[in-house]
């Protein structure tokens, strides 16, 4: 029997199968309970509606496991983040982004030969079809780069028909490699277009992060060699953003993919969802907030606003649906931030002292302590990205670039599941009951 009834099936039924009993309308219903390798057990409600005529109700999915996955595990209370079992701290301290991509896609860290092969495959797909350049000229120069990303990434399915058949594992793999390879190129093109500079082609002699900095910051008029310290910091930032379990944009990609939509269209849907300020747009919003606060003296006023229920203002870069402890990525991000600021001589960035003071004040304030609101990955990333030379409007684009491997790995895991079905939630309907049509002349 599959782990969760009619969907992904890897956790086989065991003789000592745990179960739960639901008493409803004087009847008892037994619901199977499944155990993961780590983390909370789940109650399988696949048959609940068929057996009881009831739906469950969980807007925001605070208590709902939407799928079974082997990719990423988060323990919000412990502030733990594992990718295929490896702690994010160890991947960030010892590895690089491309090996993390291999780990997420194929389940294991690559050996030297596998890494070289994977790197070569990605490198060979970094260019985009030359005709894609024309898409950009259709956008206003001041278009938000995320608007461009949604459009151009979705349009990849108009060019790469040889990797859109999701029933062909070879095409799924090529589409995965293409997405990882082309996102930096498209992101750099969106940046170059917004500043009126010519597009820069990828260089096959550079590593992934260096190549991205090259495509963003080199100009035809002079030689440009990416700073290895900044390239290492960029690579580290990509690792921190690679995947994060079933967050809003990943769930969007899975739901889009569950209908059989092609991978490029699914990633475009994920980019659209990530753009929201409650999600990936928070890094852009967090820096704007720090700039609006302006000085340490103004912090108490903004903390008061954040606590005021009648004020929609929230501390951007703070709080998380899952982490009720420090986001482990934020800890690494803060260290990365200081290193980059020092390397570029921007350690006088006025936003940094405001961020550090705000973090200290918030972490001592009862309101935030009681609600377990800690800085998340977006709190320091904006300061770091600005120091790397990116405008605020590019921050979420960089998040999308890095998260593409997580989206595509989660999509691939879903597509490869023989029990995969289209996602189709139900609802609690509170609208009008059935009523007869009223002719226009009879309406009040
Ligand atoms: C990302 O899911 C992921 O994994 C996402 C992500 C990933 O890698 O994919 O980690 C990336 O999106 C990080 C989060 C970035 N967003 C922000 O920084 C925006 C600011 N944060 C929030 O809007 C909020 O914390 C969320 C959206 C992140 C989480 O919202 P929840 O889980 O729905 O929590 P909630 O809104 O129900 O808040 C619980 C309480 C509320 O107060 P009470 O009604 O209990 O009195 O905490 C308060 C909220 O008002 N609260 C905040 C706050 N966040 C929550 N109050 C002030 N400032 C905040 N930032």
Low-confidence stretches: 1-13
Give the percentage of residues in beta strands: 5-15%
| Number of distinct helices | 18
- The largest beta-sheet arranges its strands as 1-2-3
**SS-based class:** mainly alpha
Integer-rounded radius of gyration: 24 Å
The count of strands amounts to: 6
Helix coverage percent of residues?
Answer: 40-55%
User: What about the largest sheet?
Assistant: 3 strands, antiparallel
The general outline is: globular
Q: Which whole number gives the mean pLDDT?
A: 93
Description:
The chain is mostly helical and 444 residues long. 47% of the residues lie in helices and 6% in strands. The strands form 2 sheets. A 3-stranded antiparallel beta sheet has the order 1-2-3. A 3-stranded antiparallel beta sheet has the order 4-5-6. A hairpin with a 7-residue loop joins strand 2 and strand 3. Helix 6 runs antiparallel to helix 7, helix 7 packs antiparallel against helix 18 and helix 11 packs across helix 18. The longest helix is centred in the middle third of the chain and has 26 residues. The radius of gyration is 24 Å and the shape is globular. The termini are far apart. The structure holds s-citryldethia Coenzyme A (SDX). The site of s-citryldethia Coenzyme A (SDX) has 21 residues, from loops.
């Amino acid at each position: 029997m599959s782990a969760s009834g009619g969907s992904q099936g890897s956790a086989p039924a065991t003789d000592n199968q745990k179960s739960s009993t639901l008493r409803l309308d004087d009847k008892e219903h037994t619901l199977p309970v499944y155990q993961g390798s780590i983390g909370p057990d789940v109650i399988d409600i696949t048959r609940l509606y068929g057996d009881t005529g009831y739906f469950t109700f969980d807007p925001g999915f605070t208590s709902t496991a939407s799928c079974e996955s082997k990719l990423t595990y988060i323990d919000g209370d412990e502030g733990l983040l594992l990718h295929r079992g490896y702690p994010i701290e160890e991947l960030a301290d010892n590895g690089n982004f491309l090996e993390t991509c291999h780990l997420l896609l194929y389940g294991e860290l690559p050996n030297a030969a596998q890494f070289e092969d994977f790197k070569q495959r990605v490198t060979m797909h970094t260019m985009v079809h030359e005709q894609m350049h024309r898409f950009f000229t259709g956008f206003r120069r001041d278009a938000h780069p995320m608007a461009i990303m949604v459009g151009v990434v979705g349009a990849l399915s108009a060019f790469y028909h040889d990797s859109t058949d999701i029933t062909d594992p070879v095409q799924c793999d090529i589409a995965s490699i293409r997405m990882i390879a082309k996102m930096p190129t498209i992101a750099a093109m969106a940046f170059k277009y917004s500043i009126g500079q010519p597009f820069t082609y990828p260089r096959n002699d550079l590593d992934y992060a260096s190549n991205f900095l090259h495509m963003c910051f080199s100009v035809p008029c002079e030689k440009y060699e990416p700073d290895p310290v900044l390239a290492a910091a960029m690579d580290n930032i990509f690792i921190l953003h690679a995947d994060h379990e079933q967050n809003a944009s990943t769930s969007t990609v899975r739901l889009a993919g569950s209908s059989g939509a092609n991978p490029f269209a699914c990633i475009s849907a994920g980019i659209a969802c990530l753009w929201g300020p409650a999600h990936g747009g928070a890094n852009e919003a967090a820096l704007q907030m720090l700039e609006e606060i302006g000085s340490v003296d103004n912090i108490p006023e903004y903390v008061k606003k954040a606590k005021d229920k009648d004020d929609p203002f929230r501390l951007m870069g703070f709080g998380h649906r899952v982490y009720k402890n420090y986001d482990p990525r934020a800890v690494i991000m803060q260290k990365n931030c200081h290193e980059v600021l020092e390397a570029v001589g921007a350690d006088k960035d006025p936003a940094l002292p405001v961020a550090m003071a705000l973090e200290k004040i918030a972490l001592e304030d009862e309101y935030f302590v009681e609600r377990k609101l800690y800085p998340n990955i977006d709190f320091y990333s904006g300061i770091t990205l600005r120091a790397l030379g990116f405008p605020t409007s590019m921050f979420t684009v960089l998040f999308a670039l890095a998260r593409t491997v997580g989206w595509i790995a989660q999509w691939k895991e879903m597509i490869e599941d023989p029990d995969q079905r289209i996602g189709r939630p139900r609802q609690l309907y509170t609208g009008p009951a059935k009523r007869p049509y009223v002719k226009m002349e009879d309406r009040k």
